[in-house]
Amino acid sequence: MSEMKRPRYKVEIVTTAFQITGEVEPVGPWIVYLNNPDRHVVPVHNARAVPIGVANAAAIDRSLLLVNRADICLIVLLEAAARESVSMMRHVEVTISHVGPLICRSEFHMGAEVSLLTFFDDLSGHFFPATNAEVYPLVTWPRPLPRKIDMVMLNRQQVKLFYNT
After folding, report:
1. Is residue 4's pLDDT more than 90?
2. Whether this model's pTM surpasses 0.90
């Protein structure tokens, strides 16, 4: 009996120390997969990791790279199919977030009864989607990130501070 194949989606991941490109095969919806308390790593297939802020650093190329979930600052979902699978609340607050090695201007999606003041307290997991993102690096990047990104998955553990625009 053959094993069911799950879809893999192209991603770009920024951690506290690396810029990683590759493919992630989420088990279930993205939010549920990333926020599963039993998972401590995110497997990245066909991965390339390059250190951030290090001139002429050698890349790490592997068919499978395991990334510590707690160190992930953000994940860029590069494919429309992946972004469309993420459900979001309708109430939007435009924010500036200092996330690891970058600043991100984006829209946080929250319930109508939630305010920016209580947003992080009301999250049920660490990862949440932010849309219409603009990212500004604070260090030298091995490969430039796109300035404008439709959707990113932010890790609240790596958001050092955030505020309204």
Report:
1. no
2. yes
